[in-house]
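[audit] Reproducing an earlier prediction to check determinism. Same input, same settings, fresh worker. If the tokens differ from the archived copy the diff job will pick it up downstream; this log only records the rerun itself.
[audit] input (421 residues):
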Amino acid sequence: MKISLLLTGNELMSGDTVDSNSAYIAQSLKDIGVTPYIKKVVGDDLNLLVQSIEELCAVSEVLIINGGLGPTVDDLTALALSKATGSPLRRHPDAMSHLENWASSHDFKLTEPNLKQTDLPETCEVVDNPIGSAVGFHCLYKECLVICTPGVPSEFKKMVEQQVLPLLQSHFDIVVKSKVTRMRLFGMTESGLQDIINKQFPDWPKEIDLGFRVQLPVIEVKLSSYGEENDSLNLRWAEKLRVLLGDFIIGDDNTRLTQALNQTLLLNELVVTTAESCTGGAIAAEITSEAGSSAVFNGGFVVYSNQMKSSILGVSSETLQEHGAVSEQVVLEMAAGAIRLTNADMAMAVSGIAGPTGGAANKPVGTVWMAWGRKNGLKTRKFFLPMSRRAFQKTTTAIAMDLIRRDVLGLDTQVDYFRNA
């Protein structure tokens, strides 16, 4: 099957927005044994869009258009498809009903620009959008199935899973992989993961496709097979991988690191608090991004300056003066102070040098100390993460959450993160 992708938007051309949607649809199409034939990116230019639709439909069986379904004048997909197919724009009743329901559920007052999202080519049928205000739509043109989807990644992903793939299966004789097993890992590199599997399983069966998808901060490992006769083989090799990868696995399917941590705390009836310096509250923000986090988190502290470390958490001025803010002694006192003030069961404290300045010979940029655990059982580790400031903060946050998860589960907390390449 020849499936082409057409992505539209000036923000894609300028680099203001990174195209993640085409990577996602390409990965998803693998589940039905298809690789995109042509990918084309164009700006918000009506004539160029019309020309691109005509050209790609002439050589493709399916054209997926992504973006340009919004309410503003630069959202041109419906108009471009109308001109290419010669099908006039009409206010589609199903699109209108969807928009009204969306507005009602979001307590949103519709304006005339919003109604533009319901004006679709007359020959098109609606593709439901379970999240956003704009429906997708599809039609046949030059014997090519054209499917138009929104550019917002969260909306696009839901539509691919729930609408686009089933639509393709209904139009074409597609053999879908009968068994897909997914597991999510944290703390390994993609290359390290592949190397370990190559060494341990040189006899990997050809019936099982092995794939990786990096979804920072985790990696998804996917085992896919065709035919029910290979289902048991899929499960058997998945179990071998679970044994091999062990503690690095945080869950199955779409498990998030925050989700794995919060569920672990909840099942063990534990409440955690945070004391953060270099991460600026990112650990607390991640924990509370999950629904129900109030059951496992009752408060945290961002103590960026030495004065705040002392006045809020009770870190002694002598400790700060003798050892410096980025030290084992300071994070221990930060963690103890956070537990004392919140009466939480556990704490995570971090203090580091995010850079790009502020380092020294004995404490270079990228140095971070962490202290975690319970009041009478605090543990510490020093990490060196030489990377950009933002990457440093994200990586520190992820490692901190994983250390708490491991500690609660009684797993090894001296794991050599990301050194398994």
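[audit] rerun output stored. Observation attached for the diff report: The CA atoms of residues 40 and 164 lie 19 Å apart.
[audit] end
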